[in-house]
C-alpha cells in the first residue's frame, strides 16, 4: 500500500482536492442547492477510549443511531487506514482519495460537503503534533485567500491533538474546512470536513459525529 507522510497527509487534506472542488462548485451553480438536514450539536468530544493501528480501507454499512437533545441521527461505522474507525451519516458513499490512506465520503443530498478520514506515519516524529500542523498552516499562507480561524493544541482520547479550521478559495470556490489531527501508536490520524462557508455549523456537526465515534 502506498504510504503517505504526515505532512503530506495534512497538506493533501487541507488542499481540498482541487479537481473535486471545481466539479462541486460547478454542480452547485448548475442546480439549486438542497438544504442539508440538521445534524448533532457541534460540541467536540475529545475524551474517550483508545485502540491500536495497521492496514486497509473498508466501509461497514451497519445501521446505527446516535441521539442529541433535538433528534436521532442514523449513521454508519466506517474504517480507514491503520485501523482508524469513525462514523458518517447513513447513506453517504465513500471512495479512496487521491492517496491510498485517505477515504472521502459524500452525499448527493448535501452538495459542497466532503468528509475525509485517514492516517499515516509522521514524516518527522521528532516534531510535535502542533509543530507539524503549524508547518502545514504556514505552507498555505498567502495562497488561495487562505484565512485561519482556529489552530489549537489539545488532546484527543488523551493523545496529542490539534484542531485546525480555516477558509480558503481553491479555483474560485470558497470553502470552510475544519479538522482534528491526533497521533496514536506512531500514526498521525485525521478527521476533516469541507463545506460551503455558509454551512459551517453543519460542517462542525459532521466533524463532531466523526470524533464522537472515532478510534483509536
Describe this protein's structure:
- The chain has 216 residues and is of the alpha+beta class.
- The chain is built from 4 helices and 10 strands, in the order H-H-E-E-E-E-E-E-H-E-E-E-E-H.
- It has helices spanning 6-15, 18-30, 129-140, 200-212, and strands at residues 64-67, 72-80, 84-89, 93-96, 102-106, 114-120, 147-156, 159-168, 175-184, 187-195.
- A 7-stranded antiparallel β-sheet has the order 4-5-6-10-9-8-7, with helices on both faces. It has a 3-stranded antiparallel β-sheet with strand order 1-2-3.
- Helix 1 (6-15) crosses helix 3.
- The longest helix is centred in the N-terminal third of the chain and has 13 residues, at 18-30.
- The chain is globular and about 45 Å long.
- The two termini are 21 Å apart.
- The model is unreliable at 16-71 (pLDDT under 50).
Strand content: 25-35%
Approximate helicity band: 10-25%
Largest sheet: spatial strand order: 4-5-6-10-9-8-7
Low-confidence stretches: 16-71
Mean pLDDT: 77
- Globally, the shape reads globular
Largest sheet: 7 strands, antiparallel
Judged by helices, strands and strand pairing, the structural class is alpha+beta
Amino acid at each position: 500500500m502506498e504510504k503517505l507522510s504526515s505532512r503530506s497527509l495534512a497538506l493533501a487534506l487541507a488542499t481540498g482536492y482541487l479537481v473535486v472542488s471545481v466539479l462541486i462548485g460547478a454542480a452547485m451553480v448548475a442546480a439549486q442547492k438542497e438544504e442539508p438536514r440538521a445534524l448533532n450539536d457541534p460540541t467536540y468530544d475529545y475524551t474517550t477510549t483508545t485502540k491500536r493501528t495497521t492496514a486497509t480501507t473498508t466501509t461497514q454499512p451497519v445501521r446505527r443511531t446516535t441521539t442529541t437533545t433535538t433528534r436521532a441521527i442514523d449513521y454508519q461505522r466506517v474504517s480507514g487506514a491503520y485501523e482508524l474507525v469513525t462514523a458518517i451519516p447513513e447513506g453517504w458513499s465513500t471512495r479512496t482519495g487521491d492517496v491510498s490512506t485517505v477515504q472521502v465520503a459524500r452525499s448527493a443530498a448535501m452538495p459542497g460537503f466532503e468528509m475525509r478520514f485517514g492516517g499515516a506515519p509522521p514524516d518527522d516524529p521528532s516534531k510535535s503534533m502542533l509543530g507539524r500542523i503549524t508547518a502545514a498552516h504556514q505552507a498555505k499562507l498567502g495562497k488561495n485567500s487562505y484565512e485561519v480561524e482556529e489552530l489549537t493544541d489539545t488532546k484527543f482520547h488523551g493523545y496529542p491533538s490539534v484542531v485546525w479550521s480555516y477558509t480558503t478559495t481553491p479555483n474560485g470556490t470558497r470553502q470552510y474546512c475544519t479538522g482534528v489531527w491526533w497521533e496514536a501508536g506512531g500514526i498521525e490520524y485525521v478527521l476533516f470536513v469541507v463545506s460551503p462557508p455558509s454551512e459551517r455549523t453543519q460542517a462542525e456537526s459532521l466533524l463532531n459525529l466523526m470524533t464522537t465515534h472515532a478510534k483509536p
